[in-house]
Amino acid sequence: MQYKSKHLIIAISLALISAAIFFGATYNRPLELYPENQTFFEFELVENVPMQRGFATMPIDPRARNLHFRYNYQRGEDYPSSLLIFHPGNLRRHIELSNFEYIDIKIDPRFSDDLTVSMYFYIPGFSDLAHPEMHRPFSVNVRVQEERSKYRFRLNEKDFATPIWWLSHFMTGGDSIPETNWDNFTHLIIANYSQHDDADASLQVVLKSLRFMDSIPKRATTAAIFGIFVFAILFVFLPKTGKVMKKLISEEQGEPTNAAIPQSSVGKANKYTEESAQNLFEYIEKNLSNPLLSLELINKETGISSFVVNEILKDKKDMQYKNYIDTLRMEEAKRMLAETEHQISVIAEQVGYCYSNSFSRIFGKYCGMTPNEYRKKFGGK
User: Fold this and answer.
1) What's the pTM value of the predicted model, to 2 decimals?
2) In a domain, 266, yes or no
């Protein structure tokens, strides 16, 4: 009875460990567009509001980490518009969203109006790369509720829908709606909730965060199923394996086959090898200038999971992945600012940032001054 109980405990323990490892390997970490930009996307204000008829602003409060998007204009014969857009500039890249389940939006409800969030997707054979308005939009209207700051929507065609205006403009030939690949996400727009014709228009949004999320319950359920499968296999085969090991040890020690097997202490298994750690640091060093460097890319190129990457960096550098990458890039940026005369935009690109404003923001966070101030202080030394 004691023999069976021991194998039951071992089987349960290994099954739980396997489920935890499976969850860590399959769960996609949140992908944030704001305030921490974890992609090559950038945000900007696009507007054509005449100064005499209104205004459009997008100030950022670095202390509160708020982006305050606001506009107000009077309509006339023409139709001015304002929107906040997240996009990859002229790089013509896209983000794969099929591994994520939700988009999370956090705002300040005290200073935010109802708004519309639209995600655009490139459709091969239909969309034109040079004309992003031909990318198919999926929109959701957000009705801001008092004292509610977080809003979550599923990334599917139930929560999001293609606006009628886009269908009527681009699908006039009677063709069927083209199939959309959710891996070809190209840009995101925040605009006014309601459609205005001749009426005046205004919008105010205080954005705190914008990110894509995986489903923890879904991944946890899959991990639990995997753990049960591992448990079933171990529960069947562990007793047989134990008997074989018991027989081999008994024969080696010259004892009867029914003698008890001495209990040996089991040390804590290493979660990674030194070779894996060395490969990781070499890969990061060679690809530090790549703006797409991420845990997913490291896993794809080296086979080292995000869980193992964080374990290595925690043990070796006492840092999380994002802090480690930014620290390396800032050290290289400081060297180039002090030793070269390259423009800030060139340095930003060479250390892995697509846009100089993102580089300057992170540089200020780590160094307490702007790149130009650092160059004036330490340049030529």
Assistant:
1) 0.59
2) no
